[in-house]
Design goal:
Two copies of one chain form a homodimer. Chain A is mainly α and about 450 residues long. Chain A contains 18 helices and no strands.
Chain lengths: ~450, ~450
Amino acid sequence: CHSARPSLFSTASGFDDYRGFLNLCVVLLVISNARVFLENILKYGILVDPLQWLSAVLYNPYQWPNLLLVLGSSVFIFIAFHIERFLARNYITANTGVTLHTLNLLVAKPHDKINKKLYVITVGSLFSCSVYVVVFLKLWSYAQTNKWYREGYTKALSKRRIHRTSKEFLSRGLLTKLLFPVSMPSSQLKGLRDRSKVMIQYPYNLSYRNLLYFMAAPTLCYEANYPRTSGINKSYLMRRALEILFLFQLELALIQQWVVPVLQKAILPIHNYEGYTIMERLLKLSVPNHFIWLVFFYFFFHSVLNALAEVMKFADREFYRDWWNAETIVYFWQAWNIPVHKWCVRHCYKPLLSIGCPKFAAQVSVFLLSAFFHEYLVSIPLHMFKAWAFFGMTMQIPLSVFTSWVSKRFSSNYGNMIVWMSLILGQPVAILAYVYHYYVTSYTTIA
Amino acid sequence: CHSARPSLFSTASGFDDYRGFLNLCVVLLVISNARVFLENILKYGILVDPLQWLSAVLYNPYQWPNLLLVLGSSVFIFIAFHIERFLARNYITANTGVTLHTLNLLVAKPHDKINKKLYVITVGSLFSCSVYVVVFLKLWSYAQTNKWYREGYTKALSKRRIHRTSKEFLSRGLLTKLLFPVSMPSSQLKGLRDRSKVMIQYPYNLSYRNLLYFMAAPTLCYEANYPRTSGINKSYLMRRALEILFLFQLELALIQQWVVPVLQKAILPIHNYEGYTIMERLLKLSVPNHFIWLVFFYFFFHSVLNALAEVMKFADREFYRDWWNAETIVYFWQAWNIPVHKWCVRHCYKPLLSIGCPKFAAQVSVFLLSAFFHEYLVSIPLHMFKAWAFFGMTMQIPLSVFTSWVSKRFSSNYGNMIVWMSLILGQPVAILAYVYHYYVTSYTTIA
């Protein structure tokens, strides 16, 4: 019953099937966190209050300015639309258009209004700031894309000697003709079941309807025509809606039950510079924070954007790629937020390359622009200008060089692990720093 | 820049590459446990004392009886050897041999000696009990295998009319002839470089040298000849020896620093029947306990047994199979401890089948035998007869039926996860129960 053979762990055996240990990791993770959860309940009791957000919104009078700010953003959309109409009619020159758009976008910032009201609460301001950032990016895209369309149209006019000028078109009741471009024969139109499949061409795209669709659609990149679905899948929409309701409450519950006590217990050690205790707090914060971030990712990029897309019959559902397999930081940033990534490539990276900017400098510029918006979204609602979010984003540049090197030199798995590490540990460092300084500036004494 | 495509999480995408999340599990596990480790150090300081075991052995006079007990086991080995010699010489009948072997094995138990000295400390008793269990299993195998050999030899004698009887052989200086059986021509012997490759046949195997090799070899199943290696790989042996030294200290350190505080803080909640706190303690214990068990597995089944095998030039290194991929409890028990599993199959399961016992009943018998030895190894050193270890092992039977059903009905991965769960959670339940009752019986008041 014996025969000569090596043990499986010896290299001589050539055995390398350790997939069972991955299941062990999953099981251990569940068990460890079940314990932390139980410990938390035993220590603090139930802190979850599902209706807290509602009372906060209803009874806090300083929420309403944020709603007004959000509604006010339509003014900038209206202005941008009419700048484009003027440009299409040749009422103003291209350079004047650029100047006007720039002025419009520069004014489209809510921060001076938020700063004046020192007690506007953070979550509401974060929401209105985010809306303004989205409007800013969308209008930038609208202006730039229409510029490309206009240049193409002008070329076509001069080459193919098209009889009508854009001025003529637009003066003759554009809105009624919008869905039926004159260039398309009516015989062909009759055959189409779905009129949304009709391709709209410049300058027929310069309608309120078209712009409003873009403003509501889950994309930051303007196009005159988007791929559309033929109808709304009600059961799909219902599932996404249930996810939104459930995950929103889950996020709130996790923050109330798990994050707030950790943060409260971290203030004092930071104040007293207790190195190891701060590190322990940091690690304690990292797990729930990461879990909340993961749930938020699914909540926003899958549930919310897909629900919105379903309602809008918007067919391009690529809101994220497989960033969880990212072997380099660069791939992570290219994959986790596709609407923003697409915008950065189309409206920042490629234009920079086309004016002769080197590839690496263009990449760095994109990271710096992203760093600016991260800082903006943190500083304005918190009324703190510490530039840590900016610093955190710029740190992604050396980190991305490092992960690329690790993935090439060692295993791509190690690269992936470093990406996860930076996600798990990077955020809580920033959060602790901001929360501590928020406490310090808000309250003069620390309990 | 847009095209119709579904999100990756939607089933329509057909995407299923989530391997990055496995890396996340590993990273999260490391981070969570780093935190627990840091919290432990902050709370208790350094509890590790690498030389504690040495002082415990040297200054505790009740350790020495255990050493004497271990040395005393050689008496039973000596007796078993001579029973076999008498049998081979036909001095005693086969039935007398069975009776004598049974009596010898029944006496070969240290528990009455341990029980008389109530304060013999647990670890020493556990060691001597384990040695006796190993001796017991080896001598059982020795007796049974020699019975099979003898039966085969007698058949060959009657069939092939071999001239010499075993009695003649053994009366004529067996030891000198041992390595050179008469049946093998000397011309063939000269060609062999390594005399250990010479096959020893019954009754030439009945030598001290052969028995001592078996007693020291890392196997519980006796054979007259084992596959051997041609020499000792010194660097391999050195690596195993370093592993033994390091892992032994690591195990001690983990127990002192991580397990003992958790156990001490669990006594009071158990005493007061605080359900949730007990569960929290249980989960808190499960992670270090499982880690210690994993390290112990590697320490004993890889480092110790391979080092021993290298010294003994023993070539069959299959001390474990890939139990970490076990999809059923049955496979786990078949794979994690191959020496015992081999013994059970060869000396319990197959003999039971051969006398007409049904397959399932034979499997249950093996589990019950294993349950008996588990209970024995716990009860004797702790002086407690609670039968929980026995119960725990018998519970493996319904659990194995359950995991087989899960693996077939659902995914084999779920079966694997349940196996891990039972390992991670089953042990700490038993440990908490025994430790609590050990405290209760040892100390009358609980702090």
